[in-house]
Each structure stands twice: as C-alpha cells, then as structure tokens.
Amino acid sequence: NLLNLFATLSLNKSDYDKGIKDAKKESNNLKNSTIKNNKASSKSYLAVATAVVAVIGAIAKLTNDTINYGDSIDKQSQKLNMSNEMYQKWSLALQMAGADISSLTTGMRTFNTILANASQGQADAILILEQLGLSYQDFAGLSVEEIFYKVVEALQSMEEGTEKTKLAQELFGRAGQELLPLLNQEQGSLEDLFKQFEDLGL
Is the CB of residue 99 less than 8 Å from the CB of residue 178? Predict the structure, then answer.
C-alpha cells in the first residue's frame, strides 16, 4: 500500500543511492577496460551498457532491501500482536513525534505486566492505572494499538513535568522516557494525525 511504499522508500533512500553509485562504479570499470581493447565505435554501446547496468543494479538492491524491510515489519508486528498496517502507522506517527517504534515494543511489555498485576488485585499496579484515571477493566477486549492509544491520550491530558515523566516510566519502563516526545503532544493530536493518514490513503 501507499504507506508501505512511503516508508520503504524513505528508509532505503541511502541504500538506493549507494546502489546507483556502486553500479556506476562497476560499469565505469568495465567501460575503461573495454575501451583499451576495442575500436572507438564501441563507445556508444558502452555508454548504453553503463546506464543499463546502473539502473539494474539500483533496482536489484532496492528490491532486496524492500523484501528485507517487509520481512522485518512482519516479525516486529507479530511481536506486538499488531497488524502490519497498524504497525507501520504507529511507526510513522512515532517517527514524526521524534520517537521510535522500538520504544513501543519494549514499553508495552512493561504495561502488559501492570495490567496483569492489576487484574490480580495488586495494589501498586492498580494505583498506577488510577493515576491515569483508568482501571484494568477499561482495557478489557481492546487490541494492542487501542490500549496504547488510550494510555497515550490519558498521558497527553496531563501537564508536562516530573510527575508525568515518572508515571510514563512506571507505565512503560525505560521506554517511557523515550516516548515523551509523543506523550507531551497536545491531546487529540493522534486522532488528527491518523485522520490525515486516512485522508492520504495510508
């Protein structure tokens, strides 16, 4: 889809450029070697060959990187129990906020433990959720992306400061600090951003 293409081209631009550069280098070596042993009439053929080799090399490298990128998305989204499409949307949203999808992956492990502990009646876990104005019942039946969305919205409603930072770290562990660029955005910004994604067909 368009999102996958956008993310792939963005993430692999440097590799694409390298493919062009490497292909041109190899074809130039071929051209210089051949010119020494052929007549001047071969120059036009070599010029065409140079361009063809450069394009083929770049396309081959980009195709390989695209396949590897898609495979990485499959594996990472499965770790989060999230669809590929939602994984890519969250990845892009976090990048735009100055954070990274790896923070979501590690942070949700900590948060899931808190939910499990709260469901078993552990007071400290229940208290942490109460600071968000939520309880573990509020997350019953929700998908991973819906759970994260709900927590982010609750944290965005809080004023910036040490209390918010401390709560983020209690909820997401060390990833809480890394997620602050997203958590400190205005409440409702995620809804607006995802709406823009939909309008763009992402």
Answer: yes
Return d(Cα 140, Cα 198) in angstroms, integer: 26
Express each pLDDT in 27-37 by its tens digit.
Answer: 555 445 544 55
Which residues, other chains included, contact 147 with Cβ-Cβ below 8 Å and sequence gap of 6+?
108, 111, 115, 139
Which residues, given as ranges, of the chain have pLDDT below 50? 1-13, 16, 20, 23, 30-31, 34-35, 38-69
Q: Which residue shows structure tokens 């763009």?
A: 200
Q: Which two tokens stand for residue 34?
A: 């051949």
SS (H, E, C) the chain: CHHHHHHHHHHCHHHHHHHHHHHHHHHHHHHHHHHCCCCHHHHHHHHHHHHHHHHHHHHHHHHHHHHHHHHHHHHHHHHHCCCHHHHHHHHHHHHHHCCCHHHHHHHHHHHHHHHHHHHCCCHHHHHHHHCCCCCHHHHCCCCHHHHHHHHHHHHHCCCCCHHHHHHHHHHHCCHHHHCHHHHCCCCCHHHHHHHHHHHCCC
C-beta separation of 104 from 175 below 8 A: yes
